[in-house]
Each structure stands twice: as structure tokens, then as C-alpha cells.
Amino acid sequence: MSEAWIIDAARTPRGIGKYGKGALHAIHPQQLGATVLKAIAERNDINTAEVDDVIWGTSSQRGPAAGDLGRMSALDAGYDIRSSGVTLDRFCGSGITTVNFAAATIMSGMSDLVVAGGCEMMSMPNRRSPEDGPVTMDQGNLRLRAKHPQSHQGVCADAIATMEGISREALDALALVSQQRAAVAIAENRFEKSLVPVYFEDGSLALDHEEFPRPQTTAEGLASLKPSFEAMADVPLDNQGTTFRKLINAVYPDLAIQFFHHAGNSSGVVDGSAALLLASPKYAEANGLKPRARVVAMANQGDSPTLMLNAPVPAARKVLAKAGLTVDDIDLWEINEAFSVVAEKFIRDLGLDREKVNVNGGAMALGHPIGATGSILIGTMVDELERTGKKRGLITMCAAGGMAPAIIIERM
Ligand SMILES: CC(C)(COP(=O)(O)OP(=O)(O)OC[C@H]1O[C@@H](n2cnc3c(N)ncnc32)[C@H](O)[C@@H]1OP(=O)(O)O)[C@@H](O)C(=O)NCCC(=O)NCCS
């Protein structure tokens, strides 16, 4: 079996993604993806005719993002028509999954040169906002919910915090650390290696820096924010009185959900795209591509779809077991801060040293462009392993449906 090497990583800055606002909101998702796909091809001087596949992730394959966004973005980026492209959806886990699938096709001998990544335009107008009113469920969805009640992710985050006895103070403290670390990372240009500016069609600059962080965040400021998901918990979902709260209580009848998550300790809604170049050692050596990291192990893990966000801990254990490693063998961790409770529970359950986790801040400070985030995190890990001279990193994230993909990489 071949190894899979990571040759390079590129990403856009994350732009505020609030319904039609933010520096990237007017960019087409194909164009945003093309920005990083072009950068990764040019930086590494690859023959795009030899790209066996562009494996792309996006969780909203609707509107402008519909129709195999990966293939269309690659064509937009000027890739040779003999390259190929596919787009997948594992919700928030899409961007790790694309890298894992890329590595798997290289390991199996199916491919030699693959670009993996993702794109999410959370500012696209077809996304929902809490003000949009009742969600109508189709019949199939109702049938599934009778078997596996699935709630709203923010309500799930609060349910998990309640169950785990994790306080609002602890969640806010982690959010503050995220902002502080992101501020240091930005001030020290730690993201520079991967960041690719985004331009409008007329050549003017759209965005060249992270737009979401609030470096002035204070503990008092966070403490003053009102929880975001209490009202959402009781929005009627159908004409039978179903609510997100009731969907959780259908499985956990005694749980009195406390509401702790708010705009400061939840992941930011942003636009962004990222791409990584992976190659087999045979191809890389024959074509002068210098590897930056190797893929050590990969895994997927499912967990309760009702609580939705709890799979990262078992996913990390599974990928460690596959690699024959323990927690102590990992130098750096990236656990996506979908909500503060996801990262806090991950740190507690695995007994991690906080100084090794999300060292450059996470999605609470920088934002979480759903289908792109996993690829961003892997690229950030490659950069940070190189910057610090450390060896191994583990990256994982929760995904809707109660899943988590995970990957361990090693600097070369
Ligand atoms: C939590 C959430 C609903 C908040 O959205 P929002 O209310 O539109 O957030 P805003 O940016 O308007 O911020 C709300 C307020 O908090 C304030 N705020 C946000 N971050 C802050 C910080 N770090 N410090 C102080 N104040 C902050 C804002 O200034 C704003 O104040 P204002 O109302 O006085 O203007 C949204 O971020 C969200 O849904 N996040 C999760 C996304 C998600 O589910 N991703 C998938 C994961 S599974």
C-alpha cells in the first residue's frame, strides 16, 4: 500500500457570512473554490491534466453551490479537462472527509495526485435564519425523526453542556482563549503560508485577512451575551407541536436543558474555501514535489444523531488505535469549535493538555465555513507543525447526523 503525502495547503481568509453581508458574500462559490484550486496548482507547478481527482466538500449543495461544485470550481480555476472532480457532503465533517478520501485513493493505488478541500458560502441567501419562521419537514424526514430524533445543533450543544455539567463560565473561558490565541496567530502572521487573497472579477481585492475575529473580546463582554438557542428550542416544526426541545426530550425525557451558548461561544457563520494537494511518494518524487506531511491514520465514527455533536471523542480514540498511538504521542490537536462544549468536552474526556489544543484559536474566533473547515484545520496543522518543529497532529470535528471524521498527520 502506498503512503499518502500532503504536499501543500492553501485557503482563503474567512469572511463574515451573515445573510448577504461580509467581504466575500458577493463571490460565487465556484469562484471562491477556484481561488484556492488555482493557488495550489500554481504554487506547486503541477500539471493539472495529471490531477486524478478534485475531491470537494460543501454542505449546502443548493443554488449557486449545486451541481458538483468541485468539478466546476476546478474548470473555473483553469484545470485541464482531463482532471476530474467530485463533491461530497458530510455536513461539518466534509472538509476532513475529502482529505481522507483523497489519501485513501492514493493509498489504494487508484490515484497519484489529488486535490482535496471544500467551500462554504454561509452568506448565501438560501440558508435559513431564525427569523425565517417555522421549519416545515417533509414526510420522509418526519419518519426518520420518529426513529432517530435529530434536533438543532445549537440546542444539542446546550443539551450536552447540561448533561455534562459544563458551566457557562467554562464555555466562555474557552471562547476567550480562542479569541486570544487567534489574535496572537494573526499578529504573528502564523496563517500567512496558507492564506490566499480573494479578488473580485474586476481584479479589485475582496479580502486578504480573517474578517470574523474580535480581538477586543473580554470575559465580561462574553458574560453579558444572551443565550442564542432558547427561543429556537421551542419553534414549532410542524402542526403537531414538535419542537427541537421535544425531539431531544423524546430520547432524554428528564433533561431540563440549560441555555449557555451564544454568539461568542459558538462557531462563527462565515464564508471560506480551502484546498490541499496530496500525492503518492512515487508521483511526488518523480515530479519534484516536496512533501510537508504524511497521513498516518484516518477514521470515521458515528454517535447519537439526537445529540449530534458527541462523536469527536470516540473518533479520536478510534484513529489513535488505528495508528497504534496514544494521547501522549500527539503533539498538537485541532478539534473544531463548532460550539464551546464540543472542544471543552473533548479536552476533558481525553485528559488533554490545553496548551496543545487549538493553539491558534478556533472557530469561535475565526468562524466555521462548514464544508471547508476540516481542510482549513488540516492546513493549519501542517503550518503549525512546521512552525514549531513538532511531529504529530490529530484533527477531528463533529458533524450533523452524529458523526466525526478524524485524521492523524506527521510532519516530514
Ligand atoms: C450563535 C449564533 C446564532 C449567533 O448569531 P447572531 O446572533 O447573528 O450573532 P451576532 O454576530 O449578531 O452577535 C450577536 C451579538 O453578540 C455580540 N458578540 C458576538 N461575539 C462577541 C464577542 N466575542 N464578544 C462580545 N460580544 C460579541 C455581537 O456584537 C452582537 O451584539 P449586538 O446584538 O449588540 O449587535 C450564530 O453565530 C450561530 O448559529 N453559530 C453556530 C453556527 C453553526 O451552527 N454551525 C454549525 C456547527 S454544528
From TrEMBL:
- Keywords, sorted A to Z: Acyltransferase, Transferase
Q: What is the lineage of its organism?
A: Bacteria, Pseudomonadati, Pseudomonadota, Alphaproteobacteria, Caulobacterales
Per the record's keyword annotation, is Mitochondrion included, yes or no?
A: no
Spell out the catalytic residues: C92, H368, C398
What's this protein's name?
A: Acetyl-CoA C-acyltransferase
GO MF terms listed in the record are:
acetyl-CoA C-acetyltransferase activity
Q: What family does the database annotate? A: Belongs to the thiolase-like superfamily. Thiolase family.
List the EC numbers from the record. Answer: 2.3.1.9
Q: Give the SUPFAM superfamilies listed for this entry.
A: Thiolase-like
| Domain Thiolase C-terminal intervals | 289-411
Q: Could you tell me which residue ranges the Thiolase N-terminal domain spans?
A: 6-231
Enzyme class comes to transferase
InterPro entries, per this entry? Thiolase, Thiolase-like, Thiolase_AS, Thiolase_C, Thiolase_CS, Thiolase_N
Q: What CDD domains would the database entry show?
A: thiolase
